[in-house]
Amino acid sequence: MILQSVFFYLFSAVLLVSALMVIGARNPVHSVLFLILAFFNAAALFVLLGAEFLAMLLVVVYVGAVAVLFLFIVMMLDVDFVELRAGFLTYMPVGLVVGVVLLAELLIALGGWALSPDLAANLGEPMPTLAEASNIEAIGALLYTKYVFYFQTAALILFVAMIGAIVLTLHHRRDVQRQNIERQVARNAENSIEIVNVEPGNGI
Amino acid sequence: MNDFVANWLIPGAIMVGQSLLLLVVLLVVIAYVLLADRKIWAAVQMRRGPNVVGPFGLLQSFADLLKFVFKEPIIPSGSNKVIFLLGPLVTVTVALAAWAVVPVADGWVISDINVGILYLLAVSSLGVYGIIMGGWASNSKYPFLSALRSAAQMVSYEVSIGFVIVTVLLCVGSLNLTDIVMAQQSGLATKLGMPSISFLNWYWLPLFPMFVVFFISALAETNRPPFDLAEAESELVAGFMVEYGSTPYMMYMLGEYVSIALMCSMTTILFMGGWLPPLDIAPFTWVPGVVWFILKSSLVFFMFAMVKAFVPRYRYDQLMRLGWKVFLPMSLFYVVLVAGVLQFAGWAP
């Protein structure tokens, strides 16, 4: 248990510091890299909890795909750091108010919160122990039976959002030459070569 | 205190020892994989290839290593120094970390985790960070263009690799890599009543289209020719590696070849029965599993090297078309087909 505690404090400390650096770093690319570090440490905390499937999902989806696109966009931004920091003092009071309100809400909501001792017995879906079913089986069995409609609704909403994004950004440019693979494949000697016997002095 | 030694120190020491052993063996193998790549390429072009250092040039890679290490590392003054050096480190670390879950023979694996294949997918998808970081931190146009290209390329082909893995997992019913190999002990040949011809049992035959898709996606994922657009020397000089030299450059090369070797062994595990012998009869079953594993991975690498030697480089729009418009619908269709067949034939594990 000592080892687990040591690693827990290590990962949590790195997670908190890198989360702070996400908003503290001067360079936006550094911010994204710190965000990735934060994701990694969150995944490590999931592994410590025994939720290895969630940990891998976090790495595959957030680090492997979402953060890559973030980095992709941020790298291409032409950011003027001086201009970015110019409004800092005017925005700070508003930011502080929002932060304090959020903190107060969290304290009120979670201050009196405690796990009831007979929680395990009252759970809607008793969790199988790790020996009985692995992470993936347990999550899959729950997600695809009891919560299948919620799952599919979420998928549908994402699908609509994706189509919306494509519709909003798709422009067909007519002035760009495009390769038409079907036409290229369908071409053959008969319909592309014409042999002309030219009479001398007449031209074609 | 005795408890601590028995429970933590000794298992910890064993794990470190195993990891070091794997690392050393892997690096020596990579040295020869690199040499084999150059030799095969040379043979196709009717050249001799490296043949000066050692007998038949066998020590060429080690000579290259010494030369790289003893050169002066040059960091461009306009670069972002920390990220510039972090890029190659990330590439190498991530590529080597993936090998922690690869079983090279029955039980010969450092960490036999439940979500092995997901770990491999996750870690191999991180290779792109090394390239993006290096390309951006160089503060130069060609590396930056190359970083953008390769980020889009690797993310696109990961999608089809993911779906190919899903088809295999549907047949296996487990994400553990050892289970994936063990599930290939029975299959098509067993159903036909010829259990000793075990190479027909492996998934390359029933999932042949996915085998091809996986192989081509693996080429794209590791930036190998014909998809080496990240370092297309005719247009981008040397891609994201333009500003690199000496040890950082060597680390990029090393990371690249380690992930190529990883993709070869992933193909072996997913489609070619891992360490299982090709025929389940006497002389073949005496050979230790690790030998079969290395032989099969070398076969896949030979195909990688031959593709490099005789396929011309793709154009970028062709690459994207292949990934999104051909492979993605094809692998999606195959996932549905395999799931349907398994369900209606009652073969689902």
Order of helices and strands of chain B: HHHHHHHHHHHHHH
Main interface: chain pair and counts = A-B, 26 and 29 residues
Any idea what the radius of gyration of chain B is?
Answer: 21 Å
Q: Which topology of the domain at 1-81 in chain A does CATH recognise?
A: Four Helix Bundle (Hemerythrin (Met), subunit A)
Which residues of chain A form runs of ≥5 with pLDDT under 50? none
| Biggest sheet details of chain A | none
Q: Low-confidence parts of chain B, pLDDT < 50 over ≥5 residues?
A: none
Taken from the alpha-carbon principal axes, the silhouette of chain B is: globular
**Overall average residue pLDDT of chain B:** 86
Based on the structure, what is the oligomeric state of the protein chains?
A: heterodimer
For the record, what is the CATH homologous superfamily label of the domain at 1-81 in chain A?
NADH-ubiquinone/plastoquinone oxidoreductase chain 6, subunit NuoJ
EC number (chain A): 7.1.1.-
Keywords (chain A): Cell membrane, Membrane, NAD, Quinone, Transmembrane, Transmembrane helix
Protein name (chain A): NADH-quinone oxidoreductase subunit J
Subcellular location (chain A): Cell membrane
